[in-house]
Amino acid sequence: MWIQVRTIDGTETQTIDDLSRLTKIECLREKIQETFRVSPDRQRLFYRGKQLEDGHTLFDYNVGLNDIVQLLIRSESEAPTAASVRDQDGEVNPCAVSNCKNKVKTTNSGSLSQPSTSSRSFLIDPGIGLYKINELVDARDVSIGAWFEAHIENVTRATKGHRNGKAQGKSGNTYKRTNGNLSQDHSRENANNLDSTPSTSYSDCMDTDEEAIYHIKYDEYPENGIVEMDTSNLRPRARTILKWSELKVGDVVMVNYNVETPEERGFWFDAEITSLREISRTNKEVHAKILLGGPEDTINDCKILFIEEMYKIEKPGAYPLTFGDGDFKRKSGPECKHCRADPDKECRFCSCYLCGGKQDAHMQLLCDECNMAYHIYCLNPPLSKIPEDEDWYCPSCKNDSNEVVKAGEKLKQSKKKAKMPSASTESQRDWGKGMACVGRTKECTIVPSNHYGPIPGVPVGTTWKFRVQVSEAGVHRPHVGGIHGRSNDGAYSLVLAGGFEDEV
User: Fold this and answer.
1) What is the pTM of this model?
2) Taking every annotated instance into account, which residue ranges of this chain make up the domain PHD-type (predicted)?
3) Domain ranges of the chain
C-alpha cells in the first residue's frame, strides 16, 4: 500500500511506499522524515480535515490506497501544540478548558409586557413635535423603504448628537435602533394633559419638530423594541382606501408590493401611478413606480395586484388615531404559504415546530441552522428561560460536543470497527498489506466497459505491479475474476497469468 504526502502549500508531493493499513502514525512520521527531512516533532499531518495523532493507525482514519495526506511543517521555534490539558489516559480534561467567551444577548423583560389597550387609548401631548404619545403612525424602515404600522411610545428633545445624526440621516436615511426601556422623562403634568384633536397645524410645528426625537414601537414586530426616529420617516396612520374613480395618473399612493416575488403579497410602499387601464368592469390594471425613499431609489413599471387596497397617504397634521379608534391594520406579507397567516390555525412552519401553536411568541427560540421556532416548554427537557447564548440550535441540528474530535484529541471509539473480527482476535498478523480486495481509486472512462481492442494511452507491453492497477487502466475490469465478458456478447479480456492457480 502507498499514499501521497503533500506539503500544505502544494509545492512538493512524495509517494510513501511499503505501508499497511495497520501502520501506526508514529511509524508514518519516520518514513516522512526519510523523504522530507523533517523531524517527527515538527510534523502535523491532516487527512480529510482531521489531524492524525500518534497511537492510531491509518485504518482508524480510513486512509485509502493512493490517498493524499497533507503535511504542515512547524517552524523550529514553534513548540508542539499542547493547548489542551490531558489526563493519564490521554483524554482531554474538560475542566482545563475554561474562561470561554459567552456572548449574552440582553433581553428586555419590560418590553415583553405590553400595556393595556385602555391605557393607550388616550393621546398625551409631550409639548414638542408633531405627534403625540400613543398616536398611531406609519414608520418607514429605511433599509428596505417599506412602511409599517407603529405607535408613539415617547417623545424627547433631540440632543446635539441627535441633531448632527439627523442632518446626516437626511442624506443617508439612517436611524438608530435601541432596545432600552421606555424612558419616563415626561412629567405627570403632561400625563394629565389629554387631547384627541391636533394641537397645532403642520406649519406651526415645523420649528418645534426639528428638535423632537420619536420613540416608536412596531405593532407587528414588538421584538425590535423601542426605535428612535425623526419626523422624516413618520407620518399619520393611513386609513382611507381609494376607489378606482379616485385614482389618477401621477398620484402618489400607498400600495402593497413584493419586491422579491411580485406575484405574492408583500410590504407597503409609496408608489406613483404611471398607468390606469380598465379592460372590463371586473378586470383592471394599475402600473406604478415604487418609491423606496431616495430620489433615485425607485422600481419602474410595477404591476399592482391588490387594486382594492390602495391607501391615501395622510399628511402631517391629520386627525390623530389611537388604539381606541380601532386597529387600522393592513394585510401585509409575505404570509406563510401553509397556514396563510391564520392566527387560529396551528402551523409547524411559521410557529412552534413541535406543537404548532402560535401563542407565547416571546417564549420561542429560533434555530440558527434550520430556522425553525420552538417553545422553550416544548423542548425535551424543557427550558425554564431563554438561554443567554447568542447561537442556539435545536436537538435535530445540534452536534453532540462529545462526538466532535478536536485538534490534538484521540479518535472516539467506533462501534462499527469494534465489531470487526480483527478487533476481537489476538492474532498479530498484519492483514493491512493485501492488495487483492482494495477499492479502485480511479476508473477508466476513455473506453466503455464492453470495449474490444486496444485502449488509447496503454501501449503494448505495459506491466503493472498489482491487479487493481489493471482494472484502473481499463484493460481488465474485474478485480478477481479471470474472464470479463458476457454470454451474449463475448469476452472482452482474459487473465492468463494473474497469480492464481486456475489461471493458465
Assistant:
1) 0.45
2) 349-400
3) 3-78, 109-236, 244-313, 351-395, 437-504
What's the CA gap between 438 and 14, in Å, rounded?
Answer: 21
Are 109-236 and 244-313 equal in CATH topology? Answer: yes
pLDDT at residue 274, rounded to an integer:
94
CA-to-CA distance for 92 and 396, rounded, in angstroms? 26
Cβ pair 147, 140 in contact under 8 A? yes
Residue with grid cell 448628537, as numbered in its chain: 161
Query: How much of the chain is in helix, strand and coil states, percent to nearest 5?
Result: 15, 25, 60
Q: What is the DSSP letter of 336?
A: P
For residue 8 the three cell numbers come to: 500544505
Candidates 3.40.50.12280, 2.40.110.20, 3.10.20.90, 3.30.420.40; correct CATH number of 3-78?
A: 3.10.20.90
351-395: what fold?
Herpes Virus-1 (3.30.40)
In sequence order, what DSSP letters do the residues of 52-105 get, joined into one string?
--TT-BTTTTT--TT-EEEEEEPPTTSPPP--S-B-TTS-B-GGG-------B-
Q: Under CATH, what is the fold of the domain 109-236?
A: SH3 type barrels. (2.30.30)
**What are 447-483's pLDDT values in tens digits?**
999 999 999 999 998 888 888 888 888 998 887 778 8
Query: What is the residue whose three cell numbers read 505495459?
Result: 462
Element (H, E) at 269: strand 267-278
12-32 residue pLDDT tens = 999 998 898 889 999 999 999
Q: Are 150 and 217 in contact (CB under 8 A)?
A: yes
Instruction: Give residue for cell 411580485.
Output: 262
The string of pLDDT tens digits covering residues 392-421 is 999 888 877 666 676 777 777 777 777 777
Residue whose C-alpha is closest to residue 226's, from 166, 183, 180: 180
Domain range 244-313, its CATH number among 2.30.30.30, 3.90.79.10, 2.120.10.30, 3.40.50.150: 2.30.30.30
Q: How many CB atoms lie within 10 A of CB 127?
A: 16
- At 458, the amino acid letter reads V
Q: Dihedral sign, CA of 315, 214, 212, 319?
A: positive
